[in-house]
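Notes on consecutive records. When two proteins share a document, each keeps its own sequence and its own token line. Never mix them. Below: protein one.
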Amino acid sequence: MEEKPKHIMFMQKVKSEKKEEYISAHKAAWPELLRAIKDSGIDREMIWLFGDYVCIYMMAEDFDDAMLRLSKTDIFKKWSELMGPLLEEMQDYSQGGGNVITLEKVFDLEVQLKP
């Protein structure tokens, strides 16, 4: 049986003129949204900014299932509507994590140190 990824990273491009709005929204993310993210099965989520790109890191036992559960919540749908106009292109969360275009992991110190 193939092990589900626990660490996921993906990128999205923020519209240059919307970058400050994107940052502000995330710094003041709604408590209900934060709770929904945790309740969906996502253990960690962090976002880094690089120019007009955001790198989103998530850790979950089952990313696909967690994103599917999260994408069905009204609060995430509302958040996605708010974020859509700020991004060049919104990731497709309609099928959970299965449609999210993720980065390929090429190095993991912990894995490579294991005997």
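Protein two starts on the next line and is unrelated to protein one.
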Amino acid sequence: MLHRESSAAIGKARRGGTAAVEFAVCLPWIMLLLFGIWEVGRMVEVNQVMWGATREGARQCSVGSDNIQTITTNVLVYLMNAEPNAFNIPAATTITLVKSTDSNNIVTIVASRSGSEVCTMKYQNMVHPTQNDPTTASQNDKFMLQLSLPYHNIAWVNGSFFMGDPTLTSTVYWYSLIDTPIVVNPTLPVG
């Protein structure tokens, strides 16, 4: 019996650093898993903010009182003031808007800061493709508004390390709610 206790004591002494070694082996995998969960959570949060900004931009387009560049500016302000902030840039940063129209009459506005793309907004009137501004739309015109954000603008970790250079995109289809003009005749009918 005495011999058995001494061998158990010797076995415990030999395993003293095993837990530390196991922890050192597992720690990088645990940290990688945690960073991945945080990054996916950040992407989901920003994606929700982006959908809200796109819906708000489409709502503003449907009214038809502002042009597409003003609406893009409003969407950028929405994104920069949202929580979580959709960009890793301060709200007071100067952003340049460049508008272009392609052969399919899709208006593309690229917002950039210091030469790097911040986001891209696309607008297309599906009913009257040549009318490429919400102010020229007719009542019940269906239009498409699309917002795209490069993933590297929102990533906490270098996005190209994990999955190349993906883009988060939200597309909304909406109808123009511009009222048809009503003509009122100021003269009374004679009867």
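For the record: The mean pLDDT is 83.
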